[in-house]
Specification:
Two copies of one chain form a homodimer. Chain A has 278 residues and is an alpha/beta fold. Chain A folds into two domains: 21-76, Winged helix-like DNA-binding domain superfamily/Winged helix DNA-binding domain (Arc Repressor Mutant, subunit A); 90-277, 3-Layer(aba) Sandwich (Rossmann fold). The first copy, chain A, contains ten helices and 15 strands. In chain A, strand 5 (138-141), helix 7 and strand 6 (158-161) form a beta-alpha-beta unit. Chain A is globular. The two termini of chain A are 17 Å apart. Chains A and B meet through strand 3, strand 6 and strand 7 of A and strand 3, helix 7, strand 6 and strand 7 of B. Chain A binds a DNA duplex (30 and 30 nucleotides) through helix 3.
Chain lengths: 278, 278
DNA sequence: TTGAAAAAGTTGGAAAATCAACACAAAACT
DNA sequence: AGTTTTGTGTTGATTTTCCAACTTTTTCAA
């Protein structure tokens, strides 16, 4: 399989140094968060690689469901905009969505769940909405993409939105009001996202988002981290917490065995999609 | 120049009928609100026109700043859904939007404004975002459609979302948390919607929405009711308040003279769109 | 009716992207 | 060390898009 990444070539040219596949794809994703469209030729020039390499990157990211491939480039995926997931057969579930599916399985009937902001975490929404339960559940989130993704919940199931300052880029609210509001509740389970995860813990680029994540973790019995495979071995300045504070990690691919065994030793559960069982 | 549009050809074929330039471009914009990227070839086929025509459309829309032109097609502008209203000629503002435009004029630099939920009230959003002010403004709303409509506010301008139970039909939050949160603030001005308005007052179909409207009115110096002409002489079970509690009414047509004079006697201002002044 | 202006269609060569196949280098594995 | 896997570059035939200039059709108004 294509699990093990190649380390960056690190060939130092005059000024720029070549990036590995992983980092390159990560940068492409970042670029797409800012601009809604990228072009093959432009990326090839920026990263100083052949256009075919970029095309392969784009095709890979696309089949993981992370971006939309277009002629001449790729475009960002609109957040919370997959209304049809519920009906599709499980076998057809593509990469990115798998994380949401695995996560939704962790919510039990009658649970109270806190759900963080971010495109990865928002994948859980349509699958939560598709479940039928005996006891009503309650969802608490600071992210509009999440509530938007829950097509139709039963009437007796509650979706609570946090207050706060609205952030257009993340489609979420942040700030003191958000934290305070969260502290009024107690949840069984929390689903958290991150910009990057490494052996030292997981981190995020947005300081205000980090505060919300911490608040959710404090007020929940269990904390599950939802990250796709491109986030592995990425570190950002704002550290959220060490891995030990997590109940488990939900991801779309089996990580490197070394990392997996570290998790096992620390008593952290790992939910990774496996082709054979689905 | 390219200001005056040609009317649609309206040549009726077997099934499809050709669209005029204006409508075609309108459709392209709509398409881009759903999908982040469109392709020249696809559009040409769908509208049954030459690719060159589509290219001209795309170039035009792009130079108006409405879309981003890309190789082979075009992509949606980052997030913002309708940042264009500011540039469009005033005469092109269609019925529903007029209410929003009139309302946005009432917000002064440095104001704190509360904004209710509902499609009519949400019309104010793009026009608020288009204004440039000397002092930062603060907006407080329980409706996602409102914040979503504010394409790009300056960074120093705050948009505060209320907490509460999310209601999918209204794209808004309601409940005790919402009320409590609103009570913590004091605003200069509030914009309220209603399902119906009559001489006796204005009313709404949703009891939980009514509670929020009352809370906003309590905490604001001024209250403006935003209603389109179809709401006149309509009464619903849940009465919100008598007309006397309003500062004014904003609507898209001159109401009957009899009603207008009643408002005048009661000291309620009336802002109704008049073709001649715009 | 006639004529100017706007919109849409047509054409051909240049530029760019796609796709498939193959070659090569660097890692990773045994 | 030697083999396999993985990532990347290269090439060339094919398709698609772009651009500019020109023609045709439609619209509108004098």
């Amino acid at each position: 399989m294509a699990l093990v990444g190649t380390k960056p070539a690190l060939i130092e040219g005059d000024v720029a140094l070549r990036l590995g596949k992983k980092e390159r794809q990560q940068r492409i994703l970042q670029e797409l968060q800012v601009h809604p469209h990228v072009r093959v030729a432009t990326l090839a020039e920026r990263f100083d690689v052949a256009t075919e390499t970029i095309r392969r990157d784009l095709d890979a990211l696309s089949s993981d469901g992370l971006i939309n491939r277009e002629f001449g480039g790729a475009s960002a995926r609109p957040m919370g905009h997959q209304p049809d997931l519920a009906q599709r057969q499980l076998s057809a579930v593509a990469g990115f969505e798998r994380i949401g599916m695995l996560a939704a399985d962790m919510v039990r009937s009658g649970d109270v769940a806190m759900i963080d902001a971010g495109s990865t975490v928002a994948q859980i929404a349509p699958f939560l909405a598709a479940r039928t339960t005996k006891l009503p559940r309650t969802f608490l989130t600071n992210c509009y993409a999440v509530v938007h993704g829950m097509a139709e919940l039963a009437d007796h199931e509650d979706v609570l939105m946090c207050p706060g300052q609205f952030n257009r880029r993340e489609n979420a609210v942040y700030g003191n009001d958000t934290i305070e509001y969260l502290r009024r509740f107690h949840a069984n389970i929390a689903f958290i996202g991150a910009s990057g995860i490494s052996r030292q813990g997981f981190s995020d680029v947005n300081r205000r988002a980090v505060a919300v994540k911490r608040a959710m973790m404090e007020r929940s019995d269990e904390t599950w981290l939802m990250v796709d495979h491109t986030k592995f071995d990425q570190r950002y300045l704002e550290n959220v917490a060490p891995l030990e504070e997590l109940t488990g990690i939900i991801t779309d691919r089996q990580p490197e065995p070394e990392f997996a065994s570290q998790l096992e030793r620390a008593g952290i559960r790992l939910l990774a999609w496996r082709e054979d069982t689905h």
